[in-house]
Structures are given as structure tokens and as C-alpha cells.
Here is the input.
Amino acid sequence: MARHTFRVWRGDADGGQFVEYEVEVNEGEVVLDVLHRLQATQAPDLAVRWNCKAGKCGSCSMEINGKPKLACMTRMSTFQAGETVTVTPLRTFPVIRDLVTDVSFNFQKMREMPAFAPPPGLKPGEYRMQQVDVERSQEFRKCIECFLCQNVCHVIRDHEENKSAFSGPRLFIRAAELDMHPLDARRDRKDFAKEEQGIGYCNITKCCTEVCPEGIKITDNAIIPMKERVVDNKYDPLIWLGRKIFRRDQMPGYLGGPTQERLPVSEIVADRAGANSPYGDDITFPLPTESLTYEHTTETKEG
Amino acid sequence: MTENTQTHGTSAASPRAQETVERHRYDVVVIGAGGAGLRAAIESRLAGKRTAIISKSLFGKAHTVMAEGGAAAAMGNVNPNDNWMVHFRDTMRGGKFLNNYRMVELHAKEAPERVWELETYGALFDRTKDGKISQRNFGGHEYPRLAHVGDRTGLELIRTLQQKIVSLQQEDKAQYGDYEARLRVFAECTITDLLVTDGRIAGAIGYYRESGKIVLFEAPAIVLATGGVGKAYKVTSNSWEYTGDGHALALRAGATLINMEFLQFHPTGMVWPPSVRGILVTESVRGDGGVLRNSEGRRFMFDYVPEVFRNQYAETEEEADRWYTDPDNNRRPPELLPRDEVARAINAEVKAGRGTPAGGVYLDVSSRLPAEVILKKLPSMYHQFKELADVDITKQPMEVGPTCHYIMGGVEVDADTTATMVPGLFAAGEVSGGMHGSNRLGGNSLSDLLVFGKRAGEYAAKYVDELTERPAVRTADVQAAIGTILAPLNRTEGENPYQVWHELQDIMQNLVGIIRRKDELEEAIKRLEELKPRVAKVKATGGRRYNPSWHLALDLRNMIVVSECTARAALMREESRGGHTREDFPKMDPKWRKVNVVCSLVGDQVTLTTKPVPKMPRELLALFDKEELKKYLTPEELAELDEPSESAGGAEAGRNN
Here is the structure.
């Protein structure tokens, strides 16, 4: 049993302030347990959105000591004894009350994303796909829609004005998922990603990948391949050659060295939202399609 | 979209003179946005009905995401010997023959179609080598039968249905210029009462959690798909939404509940650390080779194979271990017995002092499979234990014990149409009763909600088509309902709802748990009676905007009545069967197999009656060995079977496939 001070942001759209609570913490507890204890004892009307408390539903997203996290997956043992824990709502979305935000932006963007198009001529029960082919899309379907990636994406974090033109990482993995779906009948996913979703705004800073509680490689496995596929007519032989010879991290203009896990965040000095491209600003996306890291499966495998 | 606001006077007790009510008109309102609700809404919309989906959570967060194992459907992709008749047989055995046979039959026959259909919505199940949907073994299923995606099948199912709903909204946008022209999701909205006029459904009323505003739905048909009741228990795998809302709404609207004494305690919930107590450890851990051991290291499940299952389960560890690679020539390991058997066995081991320090037993997969195989087959279990308990399941065993997981009982429905006793009210998924009898097999719930969700949507739409006149919502009913909703906020004094809730959980956990006794059940009923007036007087602190103490105050009203049904039905049923174990009546009694305990509300009193279980036709009975039937049927029923009949012996050919 230990005592911690919890600084919890309380308020609504009209404003609010931090309220400090002294609270008992038992062995093995997570931040959500402590918030529940606050509700049951000191703050019955503390608004917290949660469901499964097992890291499967993605409801209890919030910022804990400034880091976007799931409250149910943040163990109290990760804090120092007696450390003050500061809990705030997601910053990218409007506050409803206390720790609950209005995440309808994401649902609106999902609604604009063209759905899976079933292949004509195949009846239910006739679908045949190989495990290796479904696995690429399955990675993205692990998404629990906690929207931490959306929250941390600095194209829209503190840049409300970009929201209309930018769908965010959650929707980029959905685009990639459908693009890589072995039987999706649509062939214009990349055009949609560019024209409607604003994938071009993404500067590949990998913040989304870092916060994903499911460990989805959002940037490497979805955004970069989608960016590469976005346009096919800009052909740069130097890049093409570079792709043949070097690994991605050895390519000219690559800022993040192979030992550097976290890319520098230089948005303060940049003239636009988001950090500079790790590829260097002299390289424009998309890169030629020859360098694709995957093939879009076109034919149905025999079953 | 018809939408306007109206003002209603609230009850006299309320200081607010006028309350603004947002009002909507729909053909079909689906309460609940889990698998059953979404599937029902899809079907209703496909039938051309303007449909509303009411979700207590955000869209796509339903409890269905917690389902890990898979959806049982006899597609025969892995073992071609599988077919609907084998699935039927397994389900009836699992439910100890108390099931509504017709629901089991429909379920077994239609599940494959429902699963295949999901692929046309974009679902990506794991595959077999020849590119078909892969199927895995699960407790109580004779063949590998569960369509799955790693151990996150429920998430895949919800996402797929959610995305299908979006795709239908996109079609409506193209046709009418409005995504919500015919299908709208009301997220974070709770229904508190159904409105019934002259015995027929007229609408439903509730509040937005976000704003606290009242919302009224006028609709002639309502589908209940609200899931279960687990939050009445202390140790449960269920999320906060599971407060028995649909059960209670149905009761108050005049419908009946059956089999409320049957709760499934999943044998393997986490027991350590205390904060995650109850969270599920999927059965796939056992299906893929995990074994249960007590503190002495013994694989104790071999000691607990009941007589009825003796022939189907291995007797030695060697045979059990061979089964994983050669299931055709070996019998299955006893770890894969139906859930009630395993839960009781763990309970008994712990009681006998052979439990772990935290009061569970060990579930070990680390000594059975290489680490990389565990990571591949059980990724989210690995994740869950690593993150929540700091246990590496590839290196050390898990500590597990029983957790309240599922209620077999629920709203009494017609098997084919899912219609309840109240015209216009339908129910599907966990909130409905009968399909699973006294115990549900793992994997049968995802397929249940697809099969009966679809049927509920279909028949609700049909009901609307056949109506000549829509029942009108009565203003007095609306006013009374508003009074109920606002009452906890308007009280100047009253108890903290959390306090009352914790007491309710104590009563249910300690007195109406896995093992039950007459005196304890009587004590539980007495204490629930004492709790009722306190529930009616709880006071919510704070305002109307996203106020959890207010929400809990209203949910408590449902939990208490559903808990009372369970306690009273458990006291009435003097036998042990499936999810109902009476220490004082430890045997299964064939006389009780013929009986459903039915709960209804008379005034505000829970009233119990009994009703015969629908009688299985002879050709379905013929799917079983006579010897096996002896364990379930009364001597009179067995004698009947021997009487000559024109269809005798024609089982396999007798029913259409």
C-alpha cells in the first residue's frame, strides 16, 4: 500500500483546473483503478470513459504525466514511490467533461472512408485467401480505436485547421488494410489516401507508432507503403537506384541514424505543422512504386 | 429524419417544471451495439427499415470485443466430418439438454452462413492451408470448429459489423445525401424504460450520457441486444455496461425471463494482481496445449471427468498429449471439458487447500510450447499478462480461477422469430434465454449473436410491415419515465450509489456464486429485499453532464431486479445442472430437465412460475445414443422413445440440411 497524489484535470468546454487528490494505491493496480477509487470515495462525478479494463476496447485513452496512454494499461508500479501523477484529457479533441473528450472527429473520418468492396462473382463461403496474404491487413485490424495515434499526431494536435483535410494515422492504417486486402475490389485506395485523407501532410515522425498500445507499426507498415503507392508518375532514377543499393535508413537524406530510435522533434522551428521529414525535405513523396515492400494480391488463389 | 424537441412536465416530485425532450421516430430501434445489436440493425436496414442503434458506449466498444476464442460454425474446413448435427449434439450436451432445441438447431444450421457472410463485409479470419477459414478446437466441441483471428476474434467481429454499418450509411449518403437517412448510431446513450401502449411496444426513453439530456424514441419495434448482468458480481470478466439493462427493461415492459439461475463462471479468470481479478484468460490457452495444475503440480482435471463425459475424454496424460497432434485416434484432454465442469474443479481444488497463494490454480503453457509458438498463437494473452500482471507466459505459469462470465438465462423468446411475450419486442444475444440451456459452450456466443441478431432484425422488420397502426406513446408514461431518470439528481439526501452497488456485489458473489445452498440463497433474497428501498433512494452527486454516479444510480435499478431473479430462480431449482450448482442437491434430476423457471414482474414483485422445456422431436433425439439419453431423460420419456413410429431411425436423413 502506498499513497500518491493525483492531479486530475476537472472541467468542461468552458474551462477547468487541476484538482489534487491524496489516494491509496494497492499492489498491482493501474491508473484506472485509482480513478475508480476516486469515484467511489472522493469524486463520485469524476467523468472517465472506460469499458473493458483489459486493454482491449480502447476507451480509457488519456494523458498521464503528459504521455498519451490507456489508463487501464498504465501500472502504478511504473511511478516512483510518492510521485505525483498528473492526469489530463486527450489534447487533440474537445473536452466534454473532466477526462472525457469528444472523439467524433474519428468517427466522421471513418464514415468518409470507402468501405470494403466485395469481389464481384464470389459468393459467401467461396472466399479463398492465404494466411500470409491476410496477415498484412490483420496487423492493422488489431487496432482497438483508442485514438492515441490521432491524439499524438502533430498535424492535428494543436492544429485544428488541419482537421478537415487530414484523416490521421488511424485512417491511414485502414486505407493500407483495405489496399492490402487480398480480395478488395477497389483499386483507388491510394488516390483516396492522397486526395481525401491528406496522407501528404504526414512527415513520418513515427509518434503514432510510438504510442500504439497494440504495437502496430503504423508508419513503417502502413503510411510509408501508402505514400510510396500514392503516385506512380514521378519517377526519380536516383531514388530508384538508392532503393536498389541501400536499406531505407542508409538512403540519402535519411535523418534518423540506425541507432537513433526516436526521431528529433523540430516542429518549433519548422514553418509548418509536424517535424521535418526524416527523408529530408528535398525528397518529395511519393517514391516510385518499384520500391514497394509488398504486392497487392490480384488473383484469387485456388481453393 | 424526424427529429424535434418537446417539453414535458416532469413528475410532481421534481423541482424542474419543464424538461426538454429530444424526440425521434424510427421503424426499428436496436438497444445495444454489440455483435447481436449491430447484426440486427444491419438486417433491419437491409429490409428497408429506418433503424436506430443505441449504444451505451462509443460505437465499436461493445463487450463483444472481449471474446477471444472464436465463432463456432460447423463449416468442416479443418475436419470434414463436422456438420450441423454434430454441432447440435455438442451444444445440447453442453447445455445439459435444457436448451430450447429449436434455437440450437437453427444456430447449428445457420452459423456457417453467418460467418461466411462476414467475409463479404471485409472480415479477415485466419486461414487453412487451402485458403479457407481456419477453425480451432474448443471446450465441448467435438471437432475444430471455431473461426478465429488469433485471440481477438470478438474485436474482428465488432469491427467488421461496424464497418458494414458504415458502408450501409455510405450507400444512404449516395442515395439520400445523408449518412443517417436510414441508419443512425446513438453513441453513449442509455435507455431507462420501454414505453408500452395497450400491451404493444410504442417506444423507448433514456438519456445521453454525454449531455445528460433526455431522448425519446418512438418506434413500434425494439430489439434488445444489451448483453449480460456480470456487474452484479464482484469477480467478473464483464465490463461496466453489463448491468442487466435489457433483462430489466423486458421485465418492466411485461416480458418474461427464463433460466436466470444459470450463470457461467469462466474457469480461467486472472486472480493476480487483485486489480485485474476476473479478467479473462481465453480457453484457447487450453485448446492450444495449456494444462491446469494445482499447487502440488498435479494435472488435476483427470480427477474431475464426470460420468456423462467419461467416454469422450482421455484418461492418461499420454493420451491427452497425443490428441493435440492426432485428434482422430485419441480422446481429448480433460482441460477441455465444458466450462462449468472446469470451474467447479478449480473451485474444489482451491477449497481443498491445493490452490496458489492468490487463491487460484496454475495454468501453464510455458512448459508445453516453445516461446515463439506461444507468441504467435496467443499474442494478446501474452500482452495482457505482460502488461497487467508483469508475468511472461512463455516463461512461467499463469494463476487463474473462476470469474463470472456469461448468463445463460434471459428474455424468453420464440426460437424462430426472437419475439418476446410483448408484441414488438425482440431479443437476441446474451440478453435472450434458451439457446444455451444450462451452460454455454465457448465459441457458441459469437455465432449465437450472428444467427439470432440477424433473425431479430429480420423479424422486427417483418413485424413493422404487418402493423396496420403504430401504437402511440402516452404522455403520462413519458413523464413518469423522466421523473425516474432525474430522481437521483433531484434528491437532497440519499446514499452514495457506489456503496449500495458494492453491497449488492457482495451479496451476489458470496451467496449466489458458483456453489449455492438453500440457507444462503434465502439469506441473499432477504438481504436483496432490504437493499431494494435503499437502491430506490440513492443520490447522485454532481450535474447531468457525463456523471458516472448518476449513471450508476440508474443502472443499479436494473441490477437489483435481475439479481433478485437469479437468487429466487436458484432457490427454486433443486438440482445441479450446468451453471447452477446446489450443494444440497448435487445431482442432475431428469424431472428438472423438463422445466424452465420463468420470472416476471407483477407490480414491482418478482414472481416465479415454471413452464415445460420445448420437447425435442424424435428425429433430433435420434442423433444421440440411447445410453447417453439415459443420463438426461426421465424413464417415461425413454419409454416413449421405444414406441414404434414411422420416422424412427431416420435421423440423419430425417431433417433437411
